[in-house]
Amino acid sequence: MKKVLITGANKSIGFETARQLLKQGYFIYLGARDKAKGEEAVAKLKEEGLTNLEAIQIDVTNLTSIEAAARQIDSLDVLINNAGISGSFPQTALEAKTDTIREVFDTNFFGVINVTQAFISTLKKSSEPRIVNVTSGLGSLTLHSDPNWKYYKVKSAAYGPSKSALNAYTIVLAYELQDTAFKVNAVDPGYTATDFNHHNGPGTVEDAAARIVKYATIGQEGPTGGFFSDDNNPETGVSPW
Ligand code: NAP
């Protein structure tokens, strides 16, 4: 049975991703920074008859927590770097506090790097390792510099740049792993109704999770080093960087 670690999986998109992968027969390490919330989420899925999972305490901004989680997992096929925050507002270029920007980068960028580095040796033991970095269209420099893009006016000096940096890291990571069995991709789940945006997004967690699951389970013929979002090109799913 293939094993998956999802960070920030106690609710919303991460939780639904866990549910969908459990239904496909994967074992899930359900990552939560708050162990109690993780246990609650696990209990909820077990009530649905989905039993191949356990909660793992992992705060992606805390190296001690990441290393402790890595010591508990000795076999892993898929890493889904899903945990993310928007940060407080205002996020205008002229008013955003650099402390806010650092806080957002700590979770959305440095957190992903620390988690990836902590789990890479375990992932390398898998015959078909996969890494999905959950990004956002707001991280696409091409899109958010295009006045015709539907979210052109949604600007953020902390969140968007943190996802642009994550995208850049994804390219470097995929490049380094290109001659291996790894598939490393950035996936935008789409603007989705969750706590993240006070449930303002038009998309559903089911659809958002399905986009992530697609690249978490992609075959050896699948892409690596890509940025995918059904929002921009539903046919190919390819998003401009
Ligand atoms: P959400 O409802 O706010 O859930 C975020 C999850 O991340 C929660 O489980 C949260 O834990 C966890 N988290 C936050 N900081 C963490 C940390 N330091 N360590 C570990 N876990 C942490 O957000 P969501 O909408 O599901 O978003 C999931 C991902 O999709 C994020 O990367 C987000 O940027 C991306 N995304 C979302 C949308 C959207 O419209 N919703 C669009 C594009 C991309 P707690 O419960 O403890 O807070």
What would you say this structure looks like, in words?
The protein is α/β, with parallel strands linked by helices and about 240 residues long. It has one domain (about 5-230): 3-Layer(aba) Sandwich (Rossmann fold), CATH 3.40.50. The chain is about 40% helix and about 15% strand. It contains 7 helices and 7 strands; from the N terminus they run βαβαβαβαβααβαβ. The chain has helices spanning about 10-25, 35-45, 65-70, 100-125, 140-145, 160-175, 205-215, and strands at about 5, 25-30, 55, 80, 130-135, 185, 225-230. It has a 7-stranded parallel β-sheet with strand order 3-2-1-4-5-6-7, sandwiched between helices. The longest helix has 26 residues, at about 100-125. The radius of gyration is 17 Å and the shape is globular. The mean pLDDT is about 95. The structure holds NADP nicotinamide-adenine-dinucleotide phosphate. NADP nicotinamide-adenine-dinucleotide phosphate binds near residues 12, 37, 82 and 197.
